[in-house]
């Protein structure tokens, strides 16, 4: 059994097609005519008519669960005024069959309806299932373009996926966030609506929110009246309830229920239940996820809806990566071909503020099945999916602390406010680097740090053996002087000025060397604005520091001055040689005599940033 409960190796696009009389519920047409699965036929008729009242001009989907293997069979149905059209398929292709049913509905207005319908059914049934992507249906008398979704490797996108689009349009970000947390904690969840279309779309979309995990318990997108007692089941459930059954169901479902009203955008749940789920999730994850959801909602409401794409689906996937993305570190070889998952090691390896949440997650059925599928991927029995790509990126990144926050900033907030997103990305990277230096720990490679500061990228692969900072700090272009020379105290920068400095870093580094200091002084980015800091020469291959670079003029035969102000007031300009990394020749640096006011030493900060080359 697959954890998604969708069959493997499906050989037909659909299993059967039904036309049912709306009045007496008798089957008018069956294709193929020799279809004999009585269990499917009986359940299909029951799910096509979930209400005692008549249904008109509504499309919705339903799921039939196999009693032996717990595998899904999907039903796609449209109710006209007199007839119900229904496809039964093993594929979870909601948008594909919605387009197909719309085409068949429109065919009823032409004289050759029966012949055209037969052409469509013959073409789809006798040919192998189409591959994901655009599909041109050429059925002799009928030709149309359809879109086949990728239910294995693809993520639902807006507006292509009707289910996720309808759910996002129906509820607020706060409601969506609470629904996601309830799904992770395997709560008893009911979605309520007066529209069968919205109801089934919302339930299917909710199930997809926890990808690559899958709901393993009671799952009924549209609950028939005959199965109303299911709402009282003392187990996790995800059910779509029509509003006409609300009052009767209210007497059955008990206390611990999470109810989402898709019509009025309301969520009803015991406060103790919500607070219990929330308290186990770290505040940093909660805040970042809420920011990401609200950002996607703003994109949908703006003129940039086309930029939403699969961002909401990927946001929840990246959230799971931030929570459990390092599961690989707890996989152990059982023998040469199989792995085991060490849950105790996994729990101990997670940060302290995540351990309570992980402890609870380890007891959930969807996490157990998730790990089983991950082990199959590691053993090469299944293809790598998008979650594996993201988790490898997470596992190899130089800093996992801001992984979720940085992804949201780069993928979502940048669409809303590019300038603010760039400022945040640079601030994350610069703060992490300074914190690592203050702790006396090593960072990544020079390329990694340069990418962090200048380009704001946090996705470079960290080396297996980090290099100490003092061995390569001279190779980083435009690095602040106080990080190069320990004798220079770092500037005193408050939070506002620090953010401004990070936000303008690219602008400063792109200016000509003789204008950089003017920019810094004009914008008052550092408190030592009165200190003159001439630009340090750029060292290109083939040019030593004592020689002027072509295109630059020297002042009275003196090389371009260094950015670092002299701590004392020397009477001459001695040539000082700094230690260089192995394999790289030393280069002299000229210190020019200047009238510079003495900078008060700051031993406290100087001790924190210990960058002694020795």
Any chance you could write out the topology, listing elements then pairs?
Blueprint: E1 16-21, E2 27-31, H1 38-48, E3 58-65, E4 72-79, E5 83-89, H2 94-107, H3 113-126, E6 133-139, E7 142-148, H4 162-170, H5 173-184, E8 188-193, H6 196-208, E9 218-220, E10 237-242, H7 246-250, E11 258-261, E12 266-268, H8 271-279, H9 283-301, H10 311-324, E13 331-333, E14 339-341, H11 343-349, H12 355-361, H13 365-378, H14 386-396, H15 403-416, H16 418-438, H17 446-455, H18 481-484, H19 495-503, H20 505-510, H21 513-523, E15 575-577, E16 588-590, H22 603-608
Helix pairs in contact: 4-6, 5-9, 9-10, 9-15, 10-14, 10-15, 15-16, 16-17, 16-19
Keywords:
614 residues, alpha+beta, five-stranded antiparallel sheet, five-stranded mixed sheet, 22 helices, 16 strands, 39% helix, globular
Question: Your description of this structure?
Answer:
The structure is a single chain. With 614 residues, the protein is an alpha+beta fold. Helices cover 39% and strands 13% of the residues. Helix 4 crosses helix 6, helix 15 packs antiparallel against helix 16 and helix 16 (418-438) packs antiparallel against helix 17 (446-455). The chain is globular, with a radius of gyration of 32 Å. The model is unreliable at 441-467, 492-502, 519-581 and 583-614 (pLDDT under 50).
């Amino acid at each position: 059994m697959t954890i998604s409960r969708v069959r493997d190796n499906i050989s037909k696009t659909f299993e059967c097609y039904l036309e049912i009389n709306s009045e007496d519920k008798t089957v008018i047409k069956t294709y193929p005519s020799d279809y004999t699965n009585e269990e499917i036929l009986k359940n299909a008729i029951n799910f096509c008519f979930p209400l005692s009242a008549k249904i008109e001009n509504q499309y919705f989907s339903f799921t039939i669960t196999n009693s032996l293997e717990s595998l899904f069979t999907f039903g796609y149905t449209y109710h006209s005024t007199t007839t119900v059209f229904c496809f039964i398929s093993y594929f979870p292709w909601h948008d594909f069959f919605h387009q197909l049913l719309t085409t068949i509905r429109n065919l009823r207005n032409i004289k050759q309806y029966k012949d055209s319908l037969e052409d469509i059914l013959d073409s789809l049934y006798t040919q192998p299932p189409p591959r994901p992507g655009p599909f041109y249906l050429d059925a002799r008398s009928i030709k149309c373009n359809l879109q086949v979704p990728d239910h294995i490797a693809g993520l639902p996108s807006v507006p292509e996926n009707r289910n996720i689009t309808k759910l996002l349009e129906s509820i607020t970000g706060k409601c969506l966030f609470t629904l996601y947390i309830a799904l992770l904690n395997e709560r008893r969840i009911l979605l309520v609506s007066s529209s069968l279309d919205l109801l089934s779309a919302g339930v299917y979309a909710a199930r997809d929110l926890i990808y690559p995990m899958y709901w393993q318990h009671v799952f009924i997108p549209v609950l028939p009246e005959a199965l109303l007692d299911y709402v009282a089941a003392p187990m996790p459930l995800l059910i779509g309830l029509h509003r006409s059954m609300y009052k009767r169901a209210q007497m059955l479902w008990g206390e611990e229920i999470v109810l989402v009203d898709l019509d009025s955008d309301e969520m009803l749940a015991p406060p103790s239940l919500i607070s219990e789920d929330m308290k186990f999730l770290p505040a940093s994850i909660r805040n970042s996820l809420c920011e990401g959801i609200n950002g996607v909602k703003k994109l949908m409401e703006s003129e940039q809806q086309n930029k939403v794409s699969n961002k909401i689906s990927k946001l929840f996937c990246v959230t799971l990566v931030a929570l459990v993305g390092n599961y690989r570190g707890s996989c152990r070889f059982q023998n040469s071909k199989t792995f085991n998952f060490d849950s105790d090691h996994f729990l101990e390896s997670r940060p302290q503020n995540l351990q309570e949440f992980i402890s609870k997650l380890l007891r959930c059925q969807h996490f157990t099945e998730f790990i089983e599928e991950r082990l199959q991927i590691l053993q090469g029995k299944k293809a790598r999916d998008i979650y594996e790509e993201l988790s490898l990126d997470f596992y190899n990144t130089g800093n996992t602390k801001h992984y979720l926050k940085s992804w949201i900033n780069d993928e979502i907030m940048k669409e809303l406010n590019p300038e603010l997103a760039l400022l945040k990305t640079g601030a994350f990277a610069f703060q992490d680097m300074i914190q690592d230096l203050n702790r006396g720990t090593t960072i990544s490679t020079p390329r990694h740090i340069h990418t962090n500061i200048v380009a704001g990228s946090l996705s470079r692969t960290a080396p297996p053996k980090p290099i100490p900072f003092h061995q390569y700090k001279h190779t980083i272009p435009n690095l602040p002087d106080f990080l190069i020379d320990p004798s220079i105290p770092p500037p005193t920068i408050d939070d506002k000025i620090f953010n401004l400095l990070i936000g303008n870093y690219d602008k400063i580094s792109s200016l000509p060397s003789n204008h950089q200091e003017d920019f810094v002084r004009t914008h008052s980015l550092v408190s030592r604005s009165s200190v003159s800091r001439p630009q340090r020469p750029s060292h290109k291959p083939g040019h030593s520091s004592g020689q002027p670079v072509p295109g630059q003029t020297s002042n009275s035969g003196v090389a371009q001055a260094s950015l670092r102000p002299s701590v004392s007031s020397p009477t001459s300009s001695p040539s000082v040689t700094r230690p260089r990394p192995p394999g790289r020749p030393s280069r002299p640096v000229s210190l020019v005599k200047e009238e510079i006011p003495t900078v008060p030493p700051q031993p406290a900060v100087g001790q924190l940033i210990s960058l002694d080359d020795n």
